[in-house]
Structure formats: C-alpha cells, structure tokens
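> forwarded from #structure-qc
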C-alpha cells in the first residue's frame, strides 16, 4: 500500500456489510475505493465462525443479497461453509478483489479538518479517504468473561469464533460456557464424541424446532430456469416475518402461544422433570433471540452431558467452578459467550472532529442518525450501526437499506460539489434516538424480563430496530440535508495561495 494513498471511499471490513457496500459503490459508478480487511480472506463473521455445526438461523433465500440471488442453496438453512462460499462468489462475480486490501487491520482513523478527509493507519500502511464506511459488524470481536484462575488453566481454551480445529475433542472432558446461538449448535455437534460435556448455563434460552431440509435438485433447477420463483420464495419468507413484528414490538403478550410451542419442543426430548425445570426460561419468549434447533435438547438428555444452571465463576487448576459451587474436572473450555456488541473495539480507533474517539462519544450509549451517522464524525458512516439489529428476520434486509442511504449520501456530496463533508447534527441524532427509544419501551426486548446482549451497560437497548424492515427502508431511502451540517474546506489566504502555487511550480 502506497504511503498516504488517497481514495474517495474506504470501506472497513469484508463481511456482508463491506462487500455489499463495495458492490453498491461500483453500481453507483464509484471505482476509487478500497476495502480494508484485517484477515486474509473475505467473509467476516462467516469466515471467523467455523465451529462444528455452525449455520444460519435465517432461511437461505432471505439471508442473501437481493441483487445476488443464489438458486443453488443446498439447504433451507445453510451452513457456514455455504454462506462463506456465497460471499466468495459475490466477491468474484462483482469483481471486487482488486479493491480489497487483505491483512490491513485499521489501527486508527482520524478526521483531518484542514483537508476534510480521514487519515487512516493500517497494519499494511497509511492512506486517506474522503469518506469512510465502517462495516466491521457487531459480531466480529469475541467476548470472553473475566474468570478468576482462567489464565492458569492447564488445558485448552478458545472462543467459538476462534475454534481450534487442530485440537481433537474426542474423549475429552469439555466445558461449554454459554447457551446462545453458537452454543446450541456446538453442543449437539460435539456431544457424541466427547467423553463428558458440562454446559454452564446462566440463563436458559427459548428454543424452537429448526425445520431444516435439503433443497431438492428439482427446486434448484426451477430457481435457475425461472429466477422469478426465487424472488417469490424470498418474498414469502420476508412477508411472514414482517407480519410477526407487531407481536415483538407492540403486543408481547401475543407471544404466549409461541412459548407453549417451545415448551412442547422441550418436553418431547427432555423427560427428566428436574432437567426440564433447569431448561425452562422465566422470561417472555423473544426477549432474548429465539433460537432454532431440533438437536439441542436431545443432546442435553444424553448420559454424558451435565447441565449446570449457573455461570462459570472460577477455575482452579483443571477444575471449573460455577457460581452455585458446582465443580467439574475438564480438559478444555469452549466459550460461547458472544461478542463486543455495544462496546465495539473499532469505536476506540475512530477519532472525530473534536479529538474525541467514537467510544468516548458513545460512553453513555451508542446513537447514530438513522443507524448510520454519528455527530462529530463527518463523512463517516457505519453499516449495522446502533438500533439496526433484528430479532426475527434477515440482517441483509437492513444492510441493503443502509446501502441505499450510503449511496444517496455520496450523491448529495457530489451535488454540493467541491471539497465538502456532511456532519450529522447532534439535534438530529438526539431526535432520531429519542424516537427509537420511545418505540422501544413497549417491545418484548425491553419488557420481557430478561437481560440480553441487546442491552448496553446501562440497560438501554442500543442494538435492535423496533419496527419492520419496510419502515427502516423508508426511513433510509434518502438523506435529509437538514439533518446535517455542510462543512466546506476553509479558503486559503492570499499568502497561503501564493505559497501553494510556488510549491506546485517547484514540484
């Protein structure tokens, strides 16, 4: 990478958000951009999460770009390897590789007020960009809790997003910490081959059956021959989820029927009343993400599995100790404890117009205008920003809406002309955030009686969008310039202009 290379747009990350941004830039006629990726390949969370059983809990035909339909999904719920292959395919089909700088982790991004640009330091060199699109995603930096004695554990320790495939779990005594979306896929995948599995569960999840099946060759042939059938399938999947939104956002009591279905799902596999009691949540379904699995409960019912209804609190040598005092001897500890979602590390590396980092600006909670723009950070946008997450549908729908907003943002800069930047007004950010938080008050995520990763340290939900994907698309269709301050580069003095002209002549 050339020293101080200048580009129109720098995209950070090459997961769904980053690749989607790159495709949209090309479709807008913008080719002067780079995608900065810290790893050596594309894929984001679908590259990093390769643990046994890793798969998506959103149907395949909805968990893909509308502009890049895939008629050849092998299953209704695709596995990690198929989703990663899809992202590699998108990269090649849309000729994105020349724009991607691999092994280029962003160390710092600093707004340069004099030149109206972002100065970016990476592990492979420095560059500057007029606009930054941050697409690092909230599920990119693993979170391992601070456990007393963990550093002295003599066995193997790793997070689900950093799976050690060289370590053979066969016959081992394994502790799995956490019962989120990753853990319920890992447990049934490793249970048949480990010697003993001890599951540390702070809070039981609600689990519904995962109605997964192979997509027949006839279906795939039909989708290839008649692309409209793929669109119809996607539309039906989308429509069903749009109709479900009101139960989550306005009428949580209507979810009681779904709870009964989840309890029946549990009862079919868990016959032991004591174990069933451990696994039954005491909060409204939907407050945490509803998990999908038809193999999780059957795995927990096996003789080589122990469920500890308490979190891991201490490690003493090879002994793991739960908060309730339960002990187990283990050879390996696997953390399925999630990610830094409301405290994303990338925020520590973004320095805005007033010299403060994004993390400092967000110390009392994340907030961004329409989930994209933070006040004090001109020409900086984020994909999957604050309050853009979903509890029941595909994040790709939200990403594409934010790409619409990004595209119009760049069009507005072109219309304004010259060296110009847009900075979200604090009043606009506050008004947007107030409206979102007011709508959040009646949702199941706030009223369901649980503590989830949707909430930040102060208990505020800065993660989920409290509406339909249609509403969000409408809200991000266009950039309203009244919500932004237009910043232009200061005009040079006559003396400065003469010096600049002389320097150009000397050059």
């Amino acid at each position: 990478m050339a020293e101080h290379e200048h580009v129109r747009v720098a995209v950070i990350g090459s997961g769904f958000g980053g690749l989607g941004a790159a495709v949209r830039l090309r479709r807008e006629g913008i080719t002067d951009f780079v995608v900065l990726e810290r790893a050596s390949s594309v894929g984001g969370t679908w590259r990093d999460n390769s643990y046994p059983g890793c798969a998506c809990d959103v149907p395949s035909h909805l968990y893909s770009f509308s502009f890049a339909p895939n008629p050849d999904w092998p299953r209704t719920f695709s596995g990690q390897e198929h989703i990663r292959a899809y992202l590699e395919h998108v990269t090649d089909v849309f000729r994105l590789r020349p724009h991607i700088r691999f092994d280029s982790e962003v160390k710092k991004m600093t707004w340069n007020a004099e030149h109206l640009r972002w100065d970016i330091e990476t592990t492979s060199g420095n560059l500057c960009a007029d606009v930054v699109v941050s697409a690092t995603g909230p599920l990119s930096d693993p979170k391992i809790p601070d456990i007393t004695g963990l550093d002295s554990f003599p066995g193997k320790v790793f997070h689900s997003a950093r799976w050690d495939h060289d370590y053979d779990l066969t016959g081992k005594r394994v502790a799995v910490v956490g019962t989120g979306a990753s853990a319920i896929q890992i447990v049934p995948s490793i249970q048949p081959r480990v010697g003993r599995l001890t599951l540390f569960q702070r809070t039981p999840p609600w689990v519904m059956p995962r109605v997964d099946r192979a997509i027949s060759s006839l279906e795939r042939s039909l989708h290839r021959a008649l692309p409209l059938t793929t669109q119809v399938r996607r539309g039906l999947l989308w429509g069903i989820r749009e109709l479900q939104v009101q139960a989550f956002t306005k009428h949580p009591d209507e979810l009681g029927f779904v709870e009964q279905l989840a309890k029946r799902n549990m009862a079919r596999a868990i016959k032991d009343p004591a174990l069933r009691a451990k696994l039954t949540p005491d909060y409204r379904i939907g407050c945490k993400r509803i998990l999908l699995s038809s193999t999780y409960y059957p795995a927990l019912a096996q003789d080589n599995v122990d469920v500890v209804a308490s979190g891991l609190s201490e490690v003493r040598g090879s002994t793991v100790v739960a908060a309730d005092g339960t002990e187990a001897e283990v050879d390996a500890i696997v953390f399925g404890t999630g990610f830094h979602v409301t405290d994303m590390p990338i925020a520590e590396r973004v320095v805005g117009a007033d010299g403060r980092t994004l993390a400092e600006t967000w110390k009392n909670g994340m907030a961004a205008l329409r989930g994209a723009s933070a006040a004090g950070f001109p020409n900086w946008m984020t994909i999957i920003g604050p309050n853009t997450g979903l509890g029941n549908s595909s994040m790709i729908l939200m990403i594409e809406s934010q790409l619409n907003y990004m595209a119009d943002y760049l069009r507005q800069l072109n219309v304004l002309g010259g060296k110009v930047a847009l900075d979200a007004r604090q009043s606009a950010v506050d008004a947007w955030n107030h409206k979102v938080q007011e709508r959040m008050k009646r949702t199941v995520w706030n009223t369901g009686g649980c503590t989830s990763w949707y909430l930040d340290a102060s208990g505020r939900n800065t993660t989920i969008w409290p509406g339909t994907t249609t509403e969000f698309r409408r809200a991000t269709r266009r950039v309203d310039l009244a919500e932004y301050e237009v910043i232009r580069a200061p005009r040079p003095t006559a003396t400065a202009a003469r010096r600049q002209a002389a320097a150009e002549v000397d050059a």
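QC bot note: The CA atoms of residues 73 and 82 lie 8 Å apart. The first helix runs from residue 16 to 27.
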